Amino acid sequence: MTKGSCRKNVTVALAGAPNTGKSTLFNALTGLRQHVGNWPGKTVEKKTGIYRRNGRVFSFVDLPGSYSLSAHSLEEEIARDFLVRERPDLVVAIADASSLERSLYLVCELLQLGLPTVLALNMMDVARSGGLEVDAAALETTLGIPVVPMVARDGQGISPLLEAIETVADEERRTPTAGPRLGDDIEALVARLDVLLPAEFNLPYPRRWALVKLLEGDPSLRRSLKATLPADAWERIREVLHVHEQAMLEIASSRYDWAAETYRRAVSRPRGESVSLGERADRLLTHPLGGLFAFVAMVFGIYWLMFNVGAPLQRWLQDNMVARSADGLEGALKGWPDWSTSLLSNGIIGGAGLVLTFIPILAILFLALAMLEDVGYMARAAFVMDRFMHLIGLRGQSFLPLFLGWGCNVPAIMGSRIVESRGARLTTILVAPLVPCAARMVVIALFTAAFFGGAAALVSWSMVMLNLVVLALAALFISRFLFRGQDSSFVMELPRYHTPNIRTVLLTTWDRVRRFVVLAGTVILVMSLVVWAFSTFPSGDIEDSILGHIGRGLAPIGGLMGLDWRMMVALLTSFVAKEQTIATLGVILGTGEGANGALKTELTSIMAPAAAVSFIALQMLFVPCAASVAAIRQETRSWRWTGFAVGYMLVTSFVVAIAIYQVARLFGLGV
Amino acid sequence: MRADDQVVPLGMLRPGETGIVVDLSGGRGFVARCLALGCTPGTRLRMERNVGRGPVIVLVRGTRLALGRGESMRLRVKRQEMKT
Question: CA-CA distances (angstroms) from residue A250 to A151, A182, A189, A210?
Answer without folding.
Answer: 34, 8, 12, 16
